[in-house]
UniProtKB/TrEMBL annotation:
Domain of life: Bacteria
NCBIfam families from the UniProt entry: PRK13602.1
Annotated organism of origin: Vulcanibacillus modesticaldus
Gene Ontology CC annotations of this record: ribosome
GO molecular function, one term: RNA binding
Keywords: Ribonucleoprotein, Ribosomal protein, RNA-binding
Family that this chain belongs to: Belongs to the eukaryotic ribosomal protein eL8 family.
Official protein name in the record: RNA-binding protein BHF71_04465
Length: 83
């Protein structure tokens, strides 16, 4: 389950802007996207990830993704960063 990956990751970028930045800078190892996030917002992250051959996982809930990331609010996307 991707929530576990997020919890176990040593380094994360949380949120749309930070995830996008990590992808653009080549730092993202894997991207996790919440299915209940606004598709207009997540489509760019998905497109960039596919172009750069970065693995994409999907989780059901922004709230759960935020919680797994250690924040008190929902997260639309999270990037697991390379070591």
């Amino acid at each position: 389950m991707s929530y576990e990956k997020v919890k176990q990751a040593k380094r994360l970028s949380v949120g749309l802007k930070q995830t996008l930045k990590a992808i653009e800078q080549g730092k993202a190892q894997e991207v996790i996207v919440a299915k209940d996030a606004d598709q207009r917002l997540t489509s760019r992250i998905i497109q960039y990830s596919e172009e750069r051959k970065i693995a994409i996982s999907y989780v059901d809930s922004m709230k759960q993704l935020g919680k797994a990331s250690g924040i008190d609010v929902g997260a639309a996307a999270v990037a697991v960063l390379k070591d």
